[in-house]
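Below is a filled-in request sheet from our internal design queue. Each sheet records the structural input a requester submitted and the sequence that came back. We keep these sheets so that new team members can see what a complete request looks like end to end.

REQUESTER: design group, bay 2
PRIORITY: normal
MODE: inverse folding
CHAIN LENGTH: 283
BACKBONE (tokenized):
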């Protein structure tokens, strides 16, 4: 049996290069059919900004598309219906005069207000009458003070690592969690709705409750940080942390998580050392 110490540094380098080559080839040999995605630019806007709900990878056989406010394609919430062939739009009941549908399917909303915050739904029909539905979300905050209820809040969230690929483990690292808290709550999105709750933690009972969607992929840290395992494109979006202090003066922080696709943006090698570094935060 060969002694592991007998492997030279040159041998190790060769194996690493080979593994890297195989990984890159595997990534590029994946099917090239790209899924439709919607990205809010910016995901967190200030009142008065323009927001673009940017549609990527719209299929060539799309015939018509419609944008709606809210999470469902209901007629009363329709903003506009757009015909690709003629590049023409028919305004719906929810059109405020500030929205414009582009021929690539994207929706431009001008001079946004805080009431514009929330979910938007895109419904498309192709030439075979097949329907697809996608959703996007953005948040509008007040200038300077933003969304925080407490003007002196230093609550902050960072991603570790800062660039996120599919199947990575990502830590939403919390800084400056206030003292004397009853607990804290994480939500997918910006509104404190139970349906979008990811997890809640109580310091009074030292217990954590996880949402069903993330039950097998989530670890909650006592400092408020959140470890999400094996992320996918569906995890892209806004995440909000809300504190529950004893004096009920709640503070919030919001971040936008973007999960990159290796086919579209290239491939990044993640070492075992970086994964171990992430996990040590919650131990």
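RETURNED SEQUENCE:
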């Amino acid at each position: 049996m060969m002694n592991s110490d007998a492997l030279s540094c040159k041998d190790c380098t060769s194996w690493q290069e080979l593994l890297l080559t195989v990984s890159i080839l595997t990534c590029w040999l994946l099917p090239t059919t790209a899924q439709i995605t919607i990205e809010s630019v910016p995901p967190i806007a200030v009142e008065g900004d323009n927001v673009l709900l940017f549609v990527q990878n719209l299929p060539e056989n799309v015939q018509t598309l419609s944008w709606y406010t809210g999470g469902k394609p209901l007629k009363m919430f329709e903003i506009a219906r757009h015909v690709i062939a003629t590049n023409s739009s028919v305004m719906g009941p929810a059109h405020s005069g500030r929205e414009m549908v582009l021929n690539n399917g994207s929706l431009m909303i001008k001079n946004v207000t805080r009431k514009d915050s929330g979910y938007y739904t895109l419904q498309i029909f192709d030439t075979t009458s097949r329907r697809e539905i996608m959703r996007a979300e953005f948040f509008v905050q007040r200038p300077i003070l933003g969304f925080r209820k407490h003007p002196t809040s230093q609550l902050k969230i960072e991603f570790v690592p800062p660039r996120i690929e599919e199947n990575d483990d990502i830590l939403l690292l919390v800084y400056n969690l206030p003292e004397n808290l009853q607990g804290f709550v994480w939500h997918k999105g910006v509104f404190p709705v139970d349906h979008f709750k990811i997890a809640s933690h109580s310091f009074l009972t030292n217990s954590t409750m996880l949402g069903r969607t993330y039950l097998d992929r989530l670890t909650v840290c006592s400092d408020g940080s959140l470890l999400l395992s094996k992320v996918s494109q569906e995890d892209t979006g806004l995440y909000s942390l809300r504190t529950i202090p004893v004096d009920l003066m709640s503070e919030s922080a919001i971040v936008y998580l973007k999960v990159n696709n290796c086919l579209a943006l290239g491939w990044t090698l993640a070492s075992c050392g970086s994964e171990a570094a992430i996990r040590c935060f919650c131990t």
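SHEET NOTES:
- The first helix runs from residue 9 to 28.
- Helices lie at 9-28, 262-265, 272-280.
FILED BY: M.R.
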